[in-house]
Amino acid sequence: MAPGPWEELNEEVVSCRRCERLVAWREAVARDKRASFAGQHYWGKPLPGFGDRAARLAVVGLAPAAHGGNRTGRIFTGDRSGDWLWAALWRAGLANQPSSTARDDGLKAKGVFVTAVVRCPPPANRPLVAERDNCIGYLRRELELLSSLRAVLALGGFAYGACCRLFGARRPPRFAHGAEAQLPDGRWLVASYHPSQQNTFTGRLSEQMLDSAIARALARASEAPG
How many domains does the chain have? Predict the structure, then answer.
C-alpha cells in the first residue's frame, strides 16, 4: 500500500538533516547520554507531531527537549514540560492519561494535535532564525493536513511568533500569557507561557493558568467557522 500524506511527511521529518548545528547537537546528546538515562536507547532524530488527526485544536511548542523527545522519540514525552502539558490536556479531556513517558506508553490524544516549530533539540533551547525557517514548512504542512483545525495554542513567545508569521496574522498583539489573535482565515491563535521548568518552578506558570489557556483555546476552536 502506498504511503499517505501523513506518512510521507513524517518520514521526511524524521530523515531531515537540513541544519548542520542541530544535527550535530541531537546526535551528540544521543551518543553522550545523561547518566540517569545511560542504559536507554536515544531516538536522536527529528520529531514529527503527535495526536488526533481530526483535531480542532493544535498545540505548538518550541522544540523537543534534548533528553525528552530526543530520547523517547515523541514530542513532549519524557521530560517535565511534557509532564505538565499532558496532565493539563488530560484534565481538559483531551488525553486518555495524564502522563507521557515513552512511545509505547498507551497515550492517546483526543481532539488535539501536539507539535513544535523546530523538530530537533537546539543547544540551550535557542534555535537560530535560519533553523526556524528551515523547519517551519513541516509545521505548515501538518496544520494543512489537519482539515478540522480551528484554533492553535502556542506555548511560549517563540512558537507564538512563528505561528503569527506562518498564518500571516495582521498586527497581532504582543506575546503574553492569554494573548489572542484572530487569523486571516477566521481561525484563532491563543498564547500561553511554555510549561518549561523555568516557568513552572518559578511560579510564572501555574496549573490553573495552563488549564485556563487550554480552555480558552478550546472555546475558540468551537467558535471558529467550519
Answer: 1
